[in-house]
Amino acid sequence: MFKASPNAYVIFDEALNIVTCNDAYLSAVGRGSSEEIVGRYLFDAFPSPTESASYNLLRRSLDKVLTTHERDHIAVIPYDTSQPGDRPNMRYWSATHTPVFDASGVFRYILQHTVDITELQRLRERGARELVAEAGVLQRAREVQAANQAISAESKLLRDMFKQAPGFIGILAGPGHHFILANDAYERLVGGRSLVGLTVAEALPEVVDQGFIDLLDEVYRTGEPYVGTNMPVSLRQQDGDEPEKRYIDFVYQPIFTDDDQVSGIFVQGHDVSDKVEAERLQTLRRRELGHRLKNQLAMVQAIVNQTLRSSTDLMAAGKTVSERLLALAGAHESLISGSSGKTTVGEIVRKTMEVHDDQRMPRIRAEGPHMQIASRPALSLSLILHELSTNATKYGALSGEGGSVSLTWGRETDGDTLLFTMTWREEGGPPVSPPGKNGAGTRLIKAGLAGTVDSKVEIEFEPGGVVCRVTAELDSFGREEA
Predict the structure, then answer these.
(1) CA 209, CA 439: separation in Å to the nearest integer?
(2) Which of residues 246, 271, 296 is at a domain's end?
């Protein structure tokens, strides 16, 4: 938009060197290409005696902007823009000097909007006989002003859209990948750090060893875009913090010059960490549901077999099977709904063991004091006991006739810390040995008691049977979370 504007624009840095200009400006000052003036000191590119009115008018206006960082206007300034050695060509100009700030509010450049009013000035000098022509020029000036206002409004709209875009957007320049633009979402993603003016490696040193600089180099070298999906990136949110893992979808799109050379890279993307985490939890829940369903079916089979083995009356056996299946359904409902409010360890043990033990010939000996437990660790404890009981019924002490389980719980002191402890010990079952790998059930057991501090689970495969010990800090074990 800057380059194609019909209005003449040129940009100076703080040392009054010419940074860039558009084609309309080159045409107005009679230059064939930007190479003739870009990079040169203003008064070297367009020399004027330091004692001249032209020099002093222009210098005062520019110095005012440099000092106050406020816009300044020159209504009329005569200035010879001819090249050294050419015949002098005095023209009349109207100029506006506007300060330009970077994204962090630091003054960087001066934008000069120049209008050649030589024709208008000469008409004025010719007098009233050409007022009609002058009016035409003034009308054109008003039209130019209206066009400039429209362009300014459009530029502001584009800047606001860029700044407020929900996804992160940045523009990198050169092979060093310098940030020349970065919107608010980009800076929020990296903990509010200022990016403009720095290279990616300078602004985000933690990403250097994560492969992103290599990706940018490849895009700059080949001119081929790169699209990343669910890409992990570790970003530091504050100085001194450990980098925090996030997941992003993004594209690195090369930016080309008119002669098809890569000059920079457009970066656009979204933080999809919440989506990735939701997908991970959904996958975990599906696996847990499948594991739980298999355990439920195994338990139904074990209940029926166990009941029929010890019953001589089929009607009584049928009733017992129905009662146990109802108890199993209650335990399952408790697991998936996460009952609210406190309960006791004894109640959890009683409800869970109803499903796995024969009340007429009990083989699980449970003993421990009255202890309250909060809802989150209560659900975890129910799950641990459910998995231990299932494994014992399928493979351990409860799978045969002579095995038994001792289940005890209580309080212990470890230094200054009071602990909840529970021990599950199997005896009289078939020989056991550690599994080749941890299945879903073992992982659920070792996950410990949710909502507690320093929860630990130790499982030992002793010759006489499995021994599982669960510990947790007692205060958090009984405290309901807010």
Answers:
(1) 34
(2) 271
Residues 407 and 296 in one domain: yes
207 and 344 together in one domain: no
Owning domain of residue 58: 8-116
Count CB-CB contacts under 10 A for residue 377: 25
C-alpha distance from residue 366 to each of 425, 459, 461 (Å): 11, 19, 20
Mark whether 334 and 447 lie in a shared domain: yes
pLDDT at 302 over 70: no
Q: Measured between alpha carbons, how far is 108 from 182 in angstroms, rounded to an integer?
A: 16
Q: How far apart are the first and last CA of the chain?
A: 56
Is-contact 7 23, C-beta < 8 A?
A: no
Percent of the chain exceeding pLDDT 70 equals 77
Q: Does residue 78 carry a pLDDT above 90? A: no
Q: How far apart are CA 93 and CA 119, in angstroms?
A: 10
What is the mean pLDDT of the segment spanning 183-207? Answer: 90
Asked whether residue 155 is domain-assigned, the answer is: no
Alpha helices in 165-208 (DSSP H): 184-189, 200-203
pTM of the model: 0.40
Does the pLDDT at position 334 exceed 70?
Answer: no
CA-to-CA dists, residue 203 to 136, 179, 207, 218, 379, angstroms: 54, 9, 10, 20, 46
Contact present, 70 and 61 (Cβ < 8 Å): no
H/E element holding 154? helix 131-164
The reply to whether 158 falls in a domain is no
Tell how far CA 193 is from the center of its chain.
Answer: 14
| Token pair for 128 | 């009233």
What pLDDT sits at residue 261? 93
What pLDDT sits at residue 354? 75
Q: Who contacts 131 (Cβ-Cβ below 8 Å, separation ≥6)?
A: none
- pLDDT tens digit string along 381-412? 877 887 788 788 888 888 888 889 999 999 99
Q: Indicate whether 151 belongs to any domain.
A: no
At 385, list the tokens: 């006991």
111 within 8 A of 98, measured Cβ to Cβ: yes
- State the total domains in the chain: 3
Is 30 within a domain?
yes
Based on the domain organization, do 440 and 320 belong to the same domain? yes
Within this chain, do residues 351 and 262 fall inside the same structural domain, yes or no? no
Alpha helices in 357-473 (DSSP H): 375-394, 440-446
CATH label of the domain that carries residue 87: 3.30.450.20
Domain boundary among 80, 97, 116: 116
